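INFO worker-7 received task bundle
INFO bundle size: 2
INFO processing item 0
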Amino acid sequence: MSPKQRRGEATADRILAAALDLYAAQGSGALTMTALIAETGVSSGSLYHHFGSLDGLNAALYSHCMSGLLDTLIAALERSRTARTGVRALAEAYLRFTRDNRPAAHFIHASSYAGFLPAHAERIAQAKAPRMRRIADWLRPHVETGHVIALPDPLTEMLVIGPLAETSRRWLAGAPEVDLTTAARLLPERIWQSIRGDHGSAPAGA
């Protein structure tokens, strides 16, 4: 990467950090090109060069936040030796990310049906797909040995991520009955049981 490319990447990262700060402080309505120019000091030309439009910036921010979440899940999996410990660690990491990175988690969940997602699906997939492959690649040997049930990847994702995403969404929305500490204690084992294969049983302390 050339020095010019490195400077451009650093500028884009700085703009995305400022965008997330604005979102955290004032909500989605604060994410305007004018506000970001005032916040970062970058020129309008630079802003449009990097993101093309406000929708493009929102898509880049979504991709940035989602990449952070997926990298956290991958790290949790790849530190784990068994299928059970990996799935449990992934569940705990998802909830911990939600707690520790509330603005990013909120932006991910609030953007689920946003108009910018389909319009920038290819760009988002470029960042997301390789990370999802790493998760699938980690699970595959455990499926082959029968420790994880063989299902189409989207169904496995629904069983594992679905409960975590809904728990996080409700917590982020301020639902008083949802507590992340309680969820982190109760959900990981139950999620594991939902995808455990015939050879996936293990002692309680495994």
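INFO item 0 finished
INFO processing item 1
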Amino acid sequence: MKFGIALFPSKKLQDTVNQYRKRYDARYSYIAPHITVKEAFEAEEHEKPQIEEFVKSVASKHKPTEIEIKKVSSFAPKKQVVYFKVEPNETLNSIHDAFNEGNFYGEASHPFVPHFTLAQEETAQKFEDTLSHLQMIGIEHSETLDKISLCVQLENGIWHVTDTFKLGQ
């Protein structure tokens, strides 16, 4: 089975992100807008209870966190991905580190950049147009994230939330 761990924002922010994803991200229907804190990893179904316990433990050790989004950015030139950049903070980094220090299904394969994907997998020209368009629109948003979710990827590629844990409890 393929698992992942994510922080999901409010419905209001998800709706804002999805208005762009529906237009610019062919994979928008596979998972709701989120901040990935543990990228996809393989585990056997019988390991799920231990994974759930670990996620619950990490959630209990971290308080809800305020996130701030102040700009649109991209991973260019490495990847043609446009996103709302979430300002890094101590709690987000600590949550990410708890899942990626190596003893929980491996280390992260790239640096942690908290974000909400808006566009991906476009031609170079379309990518540049999309990036400049979204940067002109801009964003200024803040909210509190208070839960963390364990997700599993279904056979059709869609990610499904199996468990959600409150931060700080």
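INFO item 1 finished
INFO post-check item 1: The chain has one domain: 2-166.
INFO post-check item 1: The two ends are 27 Å apart (CA to CA).
INFO worker-7 idle
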